[in-house]
Amino acid sequence: MNMKHNGYWIFRIMVLVLIFTGSQLLAQTKYTLAPSSEMKISGGSTLHDWDMTSNAAKGEGMFVMEGNQFKGIKSLKVQMEAETLKSGTRGLDSNAYKALDTKKNKDVSFTLKEITGSGSSYQAKGDFTIAGVTKPASFPVKLTQSGSNLTFEGSFDTKLTNFSIDPPTALLGTVKTHDDIKISFKTIFQPSK
């Protein structure tokens, strides 16, 4: 009888230990994109190089955390209105919006499918949707953690024609946009409130 009673208490203590330590091990936390995040598309033309930048992206994800340490991402999506990309030159912006067909395809987005790595070096795989066309992408990402905020920086080289975009021209075709572009980002995620 006494053995049965001791076994019961040992079992209860083990369950309590598992509950308290298990809740500290891995937790999924919802994070949202901070307004200070930056997305940029860079390219060139027969006249000059150009950059179009946006600070208007929105995004959220379920991050796997162990205490305050980043361990992975369960899900993540970032999107922005294409017309929030600005170069500082109205003509370039107008040609870009026409090439992206922003009247029909309002958003540019990225959906993460997988992230691997550790420390500050990761490899991200996911889908970019630009001008209504979705293509897979794989690229390195650097992670910096400051308190509970997580900053991801990286870039991805691709071509406009991969997204069925004809490289724009200007001045009766004498200025031609190069097909090669670079998508770069510095995204800061913070725990949702």
UniProtKB/TrEMBL annotation:
Record-annotated Lipid/polyisoprenoid-binding YceI-like domain positions: 30-190
TM spans (from-to): none
Coiled coil: none
Protein name: Uncharacterized conserved protein
Source organism (scientific name): Aquiflexum balticum DSM 16537
